């Protein structure tokens, strides 16, 4: 199958997307672009590709064979290979040693993480080094899955590396965030609306959790 919203990709990114077929045997599409291709929520311009095996030096050769010698390599180690194509598209290949909990969506040119796993990945990131776009993504994903299910899925996938407490704290802490413009693809939301919805979701979740403890 093909991604439902492949038409959201511009010409340059569609060209890159098709070329990712060369890496589809070892990598899965993740991040905001994988979410965009499934729910058409906002424009995402970069490609994040995850593999459950450490990266090796052969990857650089394959990247050059696929995208040309005029790429701009930003990071090259066993955990991350990040580069920018000649037409300005950022691509990163990431070592991600975690098993998907809900399977993978088989698609061409490259398979994608299912939305449930993309939601748990975002929850993991928000508990660590999030950007405003990560908050926007989780805002949309909370509309599709409950906060409770996202947390449980994150705990199942990341085990002790995921902190529910830290995730909930960060989800409503916006002081250090740089609010950047978002190109919404359907309805437009203000940053205030997004923050308020996230705060409401966390309040409902924590209130329900306290209520359950009191009734035990």
Tally of structural domains: 1
Number of helices: 8
Radius of gyration: 18 Å
* Beta-strand share of residues: 5-15%
Structural class: alpha+beta
Description:
The chain is globular, with a radius of gyration of 18 Å. Helix content is 44%, strand content 13%. Helix 4 (115-126) packs across helix 5 (132-142), helix 4 (115-126) packs across helix 6 and helix 5 packs across helix 8 (191-214). A hairpin with a 5-residue loop joins strand 4 and strand 5. It has one domain: Roll (Nuclear Transport Factor 2, Chain: A). The protein has helices at 11-19, 31-39, 58-67, 115-126, 132-142, 147-158, 164-171, 191-214, and strands at 28-30, 47-51, 72-76, 80-84, 90-95, 104-105, 112-113. It has 216 residues and is of the alpha+beta class. The longest helix is centred in the C-terminal third of the chain and has 24 residues, at 191-214. The protein has 8 helices and 7 strands; from the N terminus they run αβαβαβββββααααα. InterPro entries: AbiEii. It holds the Pfam family AbiEii. It comes from Candidatus Woesebacteria bacterium GW2011_GWA1_39_12.
